[in-house]
Amino acid sequence: MKKRLKFRDDGTFIIVQFSDVEFLDEFDYDPETPKYDSETRALMERIIEAEKPDLIVFAGDVIASNRARDPIHSFRQAVDAAEMSCTPWAAVFGNHDSEGEVPRKTMHELQLQHEYCVAEPDPEGVNGAGNFVVTVAGKNDDTAAALYFVDSGDYSSIGDRVGGYDWIRRDQIDWYVGKSRELTRGSDDQPLPALAFFHIPLPEYNDVWDFQVCYGHRYDSCCSTPSINSGMFAAMVEIGDVMGTFVGHDHGNDFWGTLHGIRLCYGRSTRYVSYVDGVRHDLVPTGARIIRLIEGELRFDTWIRQNDGTVVVEQPEHRPEGRKAQ
């Protein structure tokens, strides 16, 4: 029986977001190269011990499937730190999770087999793998918050017309709207405080960086979003329940900013430091984003714990600079 998620007695609920851990088979590497899987595993263990989260979220690219000799083994290794700590966890999938021989549907079925995974089976007739919602109970055992997990896909399936990364499909958006309305009806017609997790950032991530005050870094030249805006952000604004979205994908980005009342947040890459001109630089040390929900409030706190144990609560301010013509 899966553990029910519940706010603590002090009214808080702590989530650790690990992004782009990209596990693979280390024995494929030269013995002289760093053992990134073991380094990443040790980092996750330190963060879990320090934060003692109520939930761990793997925000996509759990494995580097096209470089892994055994993707299923690599996935089990990637989530083992969560399992061994007996902490509830769930994963969404990224573009690298299904580049190998194991499809993402199989990867989602694999996560469901783990004892401490709180993910749910996919809804019928909805695109992707790993679309589900889990709720967090309040002190009176009522449903007090909702966490949406959405498959943002991998690459465009119509590359002859639209290239680049995939986008959240219309039936997924319809599924989210339906689940949100269902939870709202069960909550005295008041939208439940909610967060949403997926891997590939929405096009609005570029909008918030270009036109709003943000906090953190965008060392990558842009946010690597799909070319198609399918309307997921608009649906969340219209519903009014999602307070924040959380993504990975771009290893050099860790900023957050607020657009139309929703905080668009990157995690912190858990495996990769920044690379400038192909050279490793510790501009953005590895780490994890931490999220703290407060029961009964339409807000959350967030900070970053870095690989040296330091906690970054206040990130540098970025003033909007507009957008250059393409």
Automatic annotation (TrEMBL):
Question: Where in the numbering of this chain does the Calcineurin-like phosphoesterase domain appear?
Answer: 15-251
The coiled-coil regions, if any, are: none
**What InterPro entries is this protein classified in?**
Calcineurin-like_PHP (IPR004843), Metallo-depent_PP-like (IPR029052), PAP14/16/28/29 (IPR011230)
In terms of superkingdom, the source organism counts as Bacteria
Name this polypeptide is given: Metallophosphoesterase family protein
Q: Which organism is it from?
A: Paenibacillus alginolyticus
